[in-house]
Design a protein that fits this description.
By secondary structure, this protein is α+β, with helices and mostly antiparallel strands. It has 14 helices and 27 strands. The strands form 8 sheets. Strands 1, 2, 11, 12, 13, 14 and 27 form a 7-stranded mixed β-sheet that branches. Strands 7, 17, 18, 19, 22, 25 and 26 form a 7-stranded antiparallel β-sheet that branches. The chain has a 3-stranded mixed β-sheet with strand order 5-6-8. A hairpin with a 2-residue loop joins strand 13 and strand 14. The relative contact order is 0.18.
Length: about 550
């Protein structure tokens, strides 16, 4: 709740995957005051805590912003929903809990774009710092960090058939894909602690919440960043219809996400001058890249029926869900303790790509997570995703009213290279499903093409079914070019005391589910903020700080 204190050293906007990290790390100094502001409510809900209940917060209007794109030109004008967390923990409280760091090549390419200090060797200490991997600490993994990372059991026959079929096709067993080689089939690692979702709210905010120098405000909508002569002085917010101004003595830090952070910049007069003028907003800082360069992983589901009684769907009926809920409530075990995405793979769509550019996620039942309501049936499905899209979208203001959701255009598949890579990836997936490992469990296909389908027909089908992996990034990306919004420390170009730390600053979307990379980015920038000379430290000293 709001109190009579309206000035803090740091004002953090957004208590999501990055905001909770910063609130914890900055408030470790008792001489520093921190205010963390969240538009949504607390995350105290069984539907957030139980991994198997992940569909409920996705369907919720309370915990999910439920953004929606404009009609997508290459998807037959379909609008695409975008789930973003709206509660403590943000998207880490509603996501699928799949833990993937991404490829070394992803981060090394950031450096090649001119973003210094972000190659993989720079990032590895913070991946290690953030995680507590179930196998313990080693040179590649962390053993005592806030985020608990566990291996899935993957003991159902359909999971085992997925792994075996991939290897029969020719993929390697990647083992710990977050340590050595990421390419190949793998048993998924997940952010789950003792059967409970390990969000950044649980991992970072809960241990810090009682610090007297940390204030957490929920259900407060930040309307704008207040600027004086291109210096961020605080924010204006509304709480239960009442407007308040909070002052920041050191910095305002936006952690509102790939959609929310550019919207807040534009509402504050930071963005492309002409676009702002169209909404009656005076331009304080002309930054044409605000809201540009939107990237996301496009996905296509391949759905197959299985003989009755094989898939997990029979355990998810009314009685099965009751049993699941009771077992999880009492012991935090059973199906309630899994998000069901227990196996996956990374592979190349063709030999002409630099490194693996496709991802498989897999479910041992049929389910549609995209339509707003989840329907479950017998079968299994592959989700085929392109990891490094060439298509680019944008975020723009709908109006100058902060309560109006912005205009979102992903422009999926508008670059022909993305279509080619997806078609090739789908064809390889169909070949995997034809492997002997699936012979006993594959009884038919559901609105899914076959190997006899031509590439042109596959492209037509793709545009009918393509959707989002809910991995948007890069709308306030780091860099030094004319369309970069932030520098390598997340500081907004042309503005003093204003920083962004969330998925919007990633120079490119990584070959990964983006939650782990975003938490790493928050850890790294928090270290920069609390150890200003970290960037110039030798590698061995940097490692000690990260530990």
């Amino acid at each position: 709740m709001l109190n009579n204190v309206h000035e803090y050293d740091y004002v953090i906007v957004g208590a999501g995957s990055a905001g909770c990290v910063l609130a914890n790390r900055l408030s470790t100094d008792p001489a520093v005051t921190v205010c963390l502001i969240e538009a949504g409510p607390s995350d105290k809900s069984i539907f957030i805590q139980m991994p198997a209940a992940l569909t409920f917060p996705i369907e919720s209007d309370v915990f999910n912003w439920k953004f929606e794109s404009e009609p997508e030109p290459e998807l037959h004008g379909r609008t695409i929903g975008q789930a973003r967390g709206r509660c403590l923990g943000g998207s880490s409280s509603i996501n699928g809990m799949v833990y993937v760091r991404g490829s070394r090549h992803d981060y090394d390419s950031w450096r090649q774009l001119g973003v210094e200090g972000w190659d993989f060797d720079d990032c590895l200490p913070y991946f290690r710092k953030m995680e507590s991997f179930e196998s313990g600490r080693d040179p590649a993994r962390g053993g005592d960090g806030p985020i608990t990372v566990t291996r899935s059991k993957a003991d159902h026959p359909l999971y085992q058939s997925f792994l075996k079929a991939g290897q029969e096709f020719g993929l390697a067993d990647a083992g710990d894909y977050n340590s050595g080689s990421q390419e190949g089939v793998h048993v998924t690692q997940a952010t789950i602690r003792d059967g409970v979702r390990c969000s950044t709210s649980l991992a970072y905010l809960k241990p810090a919440i009682r610090r007297p120098n940390l204030t957490v405000l929920t259900e407060c909508l930040v309307e704008r960043v207040n600027l004086e002569n291109k210096v961020a002085t605080g924010v204006t917010l509304t709480h239960k219809g009442e407007q308040k101004v909070l002052h920041a003595a050191r910095e305002v830090v936006l952690c509102a996400g790939t959609i929310g952070s550019p919207q807040l910049l534009m509402l504050s007069g930071i963005g492309e001058r002409t676009a702002l003028a169209g909404h009656g907003i005076e331009c304080a800082v002309h930054l044409p890249g605000v809201g540009a360069d939107l990237q996301d992983h496009v996905v296509a589901p391949l759905r197959f029926t299985s003989p009755a009684g094989v898939s997990i769907s029979r355990q998810l009926g009314t009685l099965g869900r009751l049993k699941l809920g009771i077992q999880w409530s009492l012991f935090k075990t059973g199906l309630g303790a899994t998000p069901f995405f227990e196996v996956g793979s990374f592979f190349k769509s063709s030999d002409d790509v630099d490194y693996f550019n496709m991802q498989h996620e897999f479910l041992p039942f049929l389910a549609d997570f995209q339509s707003g309501k989840v329907h479950i049936a017998d079968g299994f499905q592959y989700f085929v995703s392109q990891m490094r899209p060439h298509s680019r979208g944008s975020i723009a203001l709908r109006s100058a009213n902060p309560q109006h959701k912005p205009i979102i255009r992903f422009n999926y598949l508008t670059d022909a290279r993305d279509v080619t890579q997806m078609v090739n990836g789908i064809r390889k997936t169909l070949q995997m499903v034809e492997q002997p490992a699936w012979a006993a469990y594959r009884s038919g296909a559901v609105e899914t093409p076959t190997l006899k389908t031509s590439d042109a027909e596959l492209a037509v089908w793709l545009r009918q079914v393509a959707n989002t992996e809910h991995h948007p990034t890069s709308t306030c990306r780091m860099g030094n070019d004319d369309f970069a919004v932030t520098d390598s420390k997340g500081l907004v170009h042309g503005v003093q005391r204003l920083r962004i730390v969330d998925g919007s600053i990633l120079p490119k979307v990584p070959t990964a589910n983006i939650n782990a990379p975003i938490i790493m980015v928050a850890e790294k920038i928090a270290a920069d903020m609390t150890h200003s000379d970290l960037a110039s430290m030798p590698a061995h000293a940097k490692e000690q700080v990260a530990q």
